[in-house]
Amino acid sequence: MGFLRRLRLSRSDADGTTAADTMGLDAFGTEDAAGAPVADAAPGRFEQQSRIAIGVLAALVLLEAVPTGLWIRNRLRPSAVPTVAAASLPPAATIPLASCEPTPAAPAASTAAAPTTGLSKGAGAVPARSDAAVPPTAPVEKSMLAGSVAVAAPVPMQVFSRGKLVGTTEAESFMLPVGTQELEFVNQAVGYRARRTVNVQAGKTSALKLDAPTGTVHINAVPWAEVWMDGRRIGETPIGNLSASIGARELVFRHPDLGERKASVMVTLKEPTRISMDLRKK
Fold first, then answer.
1. Whole-angstrom distance, CA of residue 219 vs CA of residue 1
2. Which of 13, 62, 235, 242 sits at 20 to 30 Å (Cα–Cα) from 79?
3. In Å, what is the CA distance from 176 to each residue of 12, 35, 168?
4. How far apart are CA 225 and CA 235, in angstroms?
């Protein structure tokens, strides 16, 4: 505003100067040699100030026009969120009452082919969810997940796997999961404990044989006798430090005059087994 006021004052001063010069010329009727340049300089100064004012006004207009143009462009820009056309939705008056009633559940076979309801495809309708029943998987046979193990042992033993009892050697066989299994065989009566590894195959029987360790047996008879163990002659008494397989053993004592006696003995690993037979007793 101050600039415009100064501009108007400059223009009024210029007009006054021009009028004074004109009056001076008319009054004196002659033109000074020095006065002529002053009369010519006043209009040039006025033109220069006019150009400056016009430039400033143009700059102000541009400063006001740029924000206004941006605001108009933002207002005219279309919204990025698509809207569903109202024409795609059916009018409320055309919806039959029967569509508002609950429909009975359809069988599982027909639900998969149920048509899509709701909005049309052009309006972005969501397809109906298919609840067709998934066919059940066939059960896996137990024989495909486990196998059996048959153990031949000199004495009855309990069988453990990872500290859990899984069977005994008295059974014909026992089941185990498929894979490599580490088994522990235990007989507390004879002091036997051993570990073995067996590969269990699905639907098959794995055979495992345990060798019988030996214990020590001392045998004597009164007055004397020939001794047989499990049908095999082992000599005449006294017999000491005889090695025999662990377990129950059958002994037969024979004397030419005193006859024959039979006895059973349990050979263990805990300590030497001792037995004495008096053939004089009936």
1. 141
2. 62
3. 120, 132, 12
4. 9
Contact predicate 263/254, CB 8 Å? no
- Residues 236, 251: Cα–Cα separation, whole Å: 12
Q: What pTM did the predictor assign?
A: 0.46
Residue 87 lies in a domain: no
Q: What's the pLDDT at 112? A: 43
Number of domains within the chain: 3
Is residue 210 within 8 Å of residue 239, measured between CB atoms? Answer: no
Question: Within a 13 Å sphere around the CA of 72, how many CA atoms are in the beta-carbon half?
Answer: 6
Contact 183, 168 (CB under 8 A): no
Tokens read off for 238: 């006294």
Identity of the residue numbered 249: R
**Domain stops at, among 209, 225, 249:** 209
From start to end of 90-213, where are the E strands? 146-152, 158-161, 164-168, 174-177, 179-187, 192-200, 205-209
What is the model's pLDDT at position 131? 52
pLDDT of residue 207: 93
For residue 193, give its domain range.
144-209
Q: Strands across the sheet with 247-255, in order?
A: 232-236, 226-229, 247-255, 259-267
Among candidate residues 276, 221, 211, the one with its CA nearest the CA of residue 245:
211
Peptide bond into 177 cis (omega under 30): no
pLDDT tens per residue across span 177-234: 999 999 999 999 999 999 999 999 999 999 999 998 999 999 999 999 999 999 999 9
Low-confidence ranges of the chain (pLDDT < 70): 1-44, 77-144
Enclosing H/E stretch for 7: helix 2-28
Residue 120 lies in a domain: no
